[in-house]
Amino acid sequence: MIPLDTEIGRSRALVIDSNNASRSALVSMLRDFGIAEVTQSRRPLDARRLIEHRYFDIVICDYEFAGEPINGQDLIDDLRLTSALPLSTVVVMISAEAGQAKVAEAAEAALDAYLIKPHTSAALRDRLLQARQRKRALGDVFALIDRCAYVEAAEWCQARFETRGAAWVQAARLGAELWLRVGKPHAAHRMFEAILSIGAVPWARLGVARSQFERGSSVQARRSLESLLNDQPAYSDAYDVMARVLLDQGLPEQAVAASREALHLTPGSIARLVKHGLLAFYFGDSKEASDVLARAVRYGLNSKVFDLQGLVLLALIQFDRNNLRDVSQSLRCITAARADRMGSDRLRRFESTIGILKALLEHSVATAVSMVQQLLGEIRNPTFEFEAACNLMGVLARLSRNELRLENLHQDALVLAQRFAVSHTTCELLVRALQTESALCAIVRSAYAAICADAEAAVSNTLEGAPGAAARALIERAEVTLNGKLMDLAIHTIERHAASIDDVQGLRDRATGLRARYRSYGTQAQTGDAPGPGTFAGRDPA
Description:
Blueprint: E1 12-16, H1 20-32, E2 37-41, H2 44-53, E3 58-62, H3 72-81, E4 90-95, H4 100-108, E5 113-116, H5 121-137, H6 139-146, H7 150-162, H8 168-181, H9 185-198, H10 202-214, H11 218-231, H12 236-248, H13 252-265, H14 270-283, H15 286-300, H16 309-320, H17 324-338, H18 345-361, H19 365-376, H20 386-401, H21 409-420, H22 424-434, H23 438-463, H24 467-481, H25 484-496, H26 504-518
Helix pairs in contact: 6-7, 7-8, 8-9, 8-10, 9-10, 10-11, 10-12, 11-12, 12-13, 13-14, 14-15, 15-16, 16-17, 16-18, 16-20, 17-18, 18-19, 18-20, 20-21, 20-22, 21-23, 22-23, 23-24, 23-25, 24-25, 24-26, 25-26
């Protein structure tokens, strides 16, 4: 036995392969490399549970799993998209397919290496050695990310890239993703473009499109994505981003089609099943939404990969079908999922939403109304999220449809709309949540129009030489409405015209304090994006 490196004896590995002989051979190779603790899994669904609850330094996964609902690529994609795979873990995919499409797909999935069968022990050893050297070279940035020191981590990556230090390409990718996370798309764009100047790497081309979109250039982003997909038509991540761009451009049917294509390419991806179910629920066909969400529940309800918002949407569909049995089952599932996360306001609201639907089907009107009132009492809470607003709007629409009128229904709908109608997309999602309740839909559209009018008035004041008055007006309206669009515009106005504004620091503190308290809680629709490779890029499922 020749140890792979001096630290390999403390490492843990996982081998995922349905073939007993192949799996045993891989385990023997790893033990020959000096790894004492090697765990085996025959099924990707079992492997996913292992990875979610244990740390592995090395994961070696086969591509094909005959008879299983997901393949190795689906597994790794889900773990990556939901940030369940630590940055420090070395991931190797093994495939019998030597075609360029499979190789490109593996490389783009943020794998550390891929091997084509049949492979030798020496080939595996070489790939692992190189990958572990890169991981060690990036150890400092991983530590910064673990401490949530994202700006410092991005600057570290930037320096490593500019000096062409060890693992500089991987550092550049991490750095660009971090710049996107901290809201600096221009810095991310520069890094992605610099990588592209060396070679047309598909993930860098996708990064350019993402940074263009984050900068507000959705037309440019769409062109970049169309060019990328023309060259890489099987690039599922690009379809994820395209769905988001098309939705932002007011093309929901095309967004649903792009999301459907991403799912077609990775049919076992639970994360994409839920995201597509969300788009189909709001902008497509309820039957399609029901089908894909039911598949997501079947494949991964008990997994951290599964976003429990999908269960709420499924319960709304079940309610519309007057299916008490299935709504009750959904409630039991959300209650069980919440058992070990009792401190999560998000999951508590999910449980309340489904509980209201069950009470309505059981004709327990007083119970349902009391639970609705409790949720309405939270709508100005800093942790009340956009998705909670959509869920609550869906409940209010169903109450209204069943001729159960709340005393302050229209005022409550207005408060929700004023806070969460921050863009055309969020406005449309709120409207779609209300379905055909025309009076409530009109309230949402009117509230968004008023927010836009406030923004336009502020811009006019600034152009007329009164940026201080514009900032004050924006902050005052933001304090009333809690609308993120007004907060952002106020801060932009203050930063751009600071020299011309009296009491600029006081206004800055008011605006940034307001945004820090409210803006981070879900004013964006979670309709599908392609986060980069790492735990920092995902969303806390709790």
